[in-house]
Amino acid sequence: MTIQVNGESRGVGDGQTVAALLHELEIRADRVAVELNLEILDRNEYETRGLREGDRVEILSFIGGGAR
Amino acid sequence: MDTINDRLVIAGREFKSRLWVGTGKYKDFVETKKAIEASGADVVTVAVRRVNITDRSKENLLDYLDPKKYILLPNTAGCYTVEDAVRYARLARAAGVSDLVKLEVLGDEKTLFPDTAGLIEAAKILIKEGFIVLPYTNDDPIVAKKLVDIGCPAVMPLAAPIGSGLGIRNPYNLKIIMETVKVPIIVDAGVGTASDAALAMEYGADAVLMNTAIAGAQDPIAMAEAMKYGVWAGRLAYKAGRIPRKLYATASSPIEGML
Among candidates B88, B86, B91, B71, which has minimal Cα distance to B14? Predict the structure, then answer.
């Protein structure tokens, strides 16, 4: 099935969890925020939340920024 | 100066440094780290953005900034609506470890001045959700008071437009803000050089936040150190109490004993 991750289409296995997606992308779960269809997930939900066709996942983290 | 006993306290949290710095616009992470170390800042602002999922080889800012050593202050930079600012603040909390947020709701791209009506609205929502909201605001005493009245534990008025380096454009408004509200004032944005930072502190600001003035300097690491001393000098002078300005001279040497 196909989902959107950070605006890009990506094929994932049926029912793949958020945790598995992060693992596949080599992203440390403790450093990011994950939004699933505009809902921000708790970190303890990553293992249990399964992805569905057409889901929109946003993965964000801290980058350099300031008062500019 | 006895910096140990001159701590800044906001919402019950103690901050060691009165200079806070942003982490944007540096050449690379090594320069970022060195400049921040030279500045002596213990609060660093960060932005929240999409992770690059196509190139995972890219290094992460957090590899260079130990979250145990620095207080990360996420901002909502780039947000022009209440909805966006609230969304980014929530994402920042989910990505991090604290309820601190530097709230920005910007009015337009040319000035990056705050949309103060949107700022107050977003602050209300986030405070209700338990956030510690540090609002980036205009040098407007009335807005500062409204922000404090709704529960902001500090206010962050600008010195001048973000990244402009113009220094403090309206020192009198800043002074009125300091007299109007009884929470810490962090002068945020527009500082150009060390004397601007010193002036802000001499006026009675509790801290100064800057990014471009350091990151954009020809030698960012040297400028970071200069800013550290500027803030210290200004704070010391403020606490020491300056002499009044007078029109005419007053001799420093005695007349007595002259031939």
Answer: B71
Helix/strand/coil for B61? helix
Highest mean pLDDT among A43-57, B16-30, B140-154: B140-154
* pLDDT tens digits, one per residue of B34-79: 999 999 999 999 999 999 888 777 778 888 888 888 999 999 999 9
Q: What is the ipTM of this complex?
A: 0.92
List CB contacts of B246: < 8 A, sequence separation 6 or more. Answer: none
What residue has token string 């202050």?
Answer: B73
Q: What is the pLDDT of residues B86-98, one digit of tens each?
A: 999 999 999 987 8
Chain A contact for B164 (CB, 8 A cutoff) = no
Interface A-B: count of C-beta contacts within 8 A: 119
- Of residues B1, B48, B47, B40, the one with CA closest to residue B21: B40
Q: Which A residues in the span 7-66 are in contact with B, Cβ-Cβ below 8 Å? A: 7-8, 25-27, 31-35, 40-43, 58-66
- Residue B99 tokens, joined: 């309820």
Q: What SS3 string covers chain A?
A: CEEEECCEEEECCCCCEHHHHHHHCCCCHHHEEEEECCEECCHHHCCCCECCCCCEEEEEEEEECCCC
User: Is residue B106 within 8 Å of B112, Cβ to Cβ?
Assistant: yes
- Catalytic residues of B, which ones? 102
Q: How many residues does chain B have?
A: 259
**Rounded CA gap, B134 and B165, in Å?**
22
The CA-atom distances, in angstroms, between B177 and each of A12, A51, A59, B104, B174 are: 54, 50, 39, 19, 5
CA distance B223 to B216: 9
